[in-house]
Amino acid sequence: MLSLEGIGHVFGMERVIDRVSLRVAPGESVCLVGPSGCGKTTLLRIAAGLVEPTEGRVNDGFRRSAMVFQEGRLLPWRRLLDNIALGLKAMGVPRRERLVRARALAAELGLADRHDHFPHELSGGMQQRVALARALAVEADCLLLDEPFSALDVGMRSEAQALLLDLLARRGIAALMVTHDLTEALRLGHRVVVLSPAPGRIVHEERVTRPFAERDTAFLFEAAGALLRHPAVAESFLFQSREVTA
Amino acid sequence: MKRSLPARGVETLLGWGGSLTGVLLFVALWEWGSLAYGSFLLPGPRDALAALARLWQEGEAAAAVWATTWRAMLGFAAAALVGTALGILAGLSRTLGRALEPMSTVLLGIPPIAWIVLAILWFGSGSLATVYTVMATTLPVSFAGAQMGALTLDRRLREMADVFRVPPLMRLVDIHLPHIVSYVFPALVTALGVAWKVAVMAELFATEDGIGAGLAIARVNLDTAAAMAWIVLVVALLLAAEHGLLRPLQRRMEPWRQAGRGGH
């Protein structure tokens, strides 16, 4: 279980997060949505332990949590398998064994014929799959995902989302995912948590009960519409009077 | 992009053809200049080659090449090691960077000829003065390259390393060094060229042997053909060192920089 309790964060003079409490249970997928600049990425980095929050506490009860970044963040000078095995190398797993495990993951994520490629030789979608494989390689039971598919085009994004859902379900991995796309959140989350514009507060929480397999496009748009009928959500998404900073 | 083998072959040939045209054009201009000004002021390419052959047969050329090479290489290696190490430290620590940067600027501003005078005064005539001059002039170049590399380390990769709990030594070897190397190598290629030229210049004043000393003797004897022969030799050495040593080394160490295999 990952729990954030009363998290507040101040950058310089500006408050970016205001008293956010959140829990992610084992195997549960929680999607954080909100407009640009609402502090959701900062919240994720706080959850990952990369940033010390100004207020509140983080309790990470998972065995291992790993982060998947928006832009892959692969090492440009390492080949695909070595990039996947990075976390294993950091753990001191011998080279032979970590390559065996990296190869198995590459096969599972459809990267089997690209073992010796450098990141710049891969498409954006493949790079993101490598980043995902790298997080899975350390046997994370909780993934923290920061808009992992926002750089992909529509078709690739849908494919990547399906792959992620499949991996989460098959391995029983929990996920806390940040996105600015309501339909993406509704497709991937057991729960959707909506943040307000900065300073970010939780303004709405929605449990999505329909099974993942039955969440087709029609459902997603209908659910997004229903969600936007809540005044607080609408205010977060539709009426942004203030200047938006990324 | 993938092209058929014959197409690539033709392209390579055309590339070589282009370079060859350039070289031939240069030789033709040289020959023309020699005809126009007479072989005393500007001996033609054939005279220079003949002089080179003579120097080679007398064993003078090989000895001079060896002497100049080890001096240039020793100074270059020392400057590369010290400059890179200091540059990395200066890039990682702001304070040290601020302290060292003006020094590097001053060193860079001192003309090599001034270094030679100082070196002869300090160390007397001889190899040491040459080696020192080479080191003093190439040190700021490798320093600047390494500092730039260390300054531009990717904060986002560092954060990624935090997430995967990468231990310090692995962080240095796998994440920081490859990036720094990509900055240091071009700087070293530049420094190598400078090293050779400065070594020859220092030898002109400070030593009894080496290519620079050969040039000095050619000057005394008013032997322009021999001077040309020495120049040809220096250029050949420099090209051999760059394309025979540094570039292949860079290709080996940085395969990730080469053109893609078409990964889509």
Automatic annotation (TrEMBL), chain A:
<dbReference type="InterPro" id="IPR003593">
    <property type="entry name" value="AAA+_ATPase"/>
</dbReference>
<dbReference type="InterPro" id="IPR017871">
    <property type="entry name" value="ABC_transporter-like_CS"/>
</dbReference>
<dbReference type="Pfam" id="PF00005">
    <property type="entry name" value="ABC_tran"/>
</dbReference>
<keyword id="KW-0547">Nucleotide-binding</keyword>
<dbReference type="GO" id="GO:0005524">
    <property type="term" value="F:ATP binding"/>
</dbReference>
<dbReference type="InterPro" id="IPR003439">
    <property type="entry name" value="ABC_transporter-like_ATP-bd"/>
</dbReference>
<comment type="similarity">
    <text>Belongs to the ABC transporter superfamily.</text>
</comment>
<dbReference type="InterPro" id="IPR050166">
    <property type="entry name" value="ABC_transporter_ATP-bind"/>
</dbReference>
<keyword id="KW-0813">Transport</keyword>
<feature type="domain" description="ABC transporter">
    <location>
        <begin position="2"/>
        <end position="222"/>
    </location>
</feature>
<protein>
    <submittedName>
        <fullName>ATP-binding cassette domain-containing protein</fullName>
    </submittedName>
</protein>
<dbReference type="InterPro" id="IPR027417">
    <property type="entry name" value="P-loop_NTPase"/>
</dbReference>
<keyword id="KW-0067">ATP-binding</keyword>
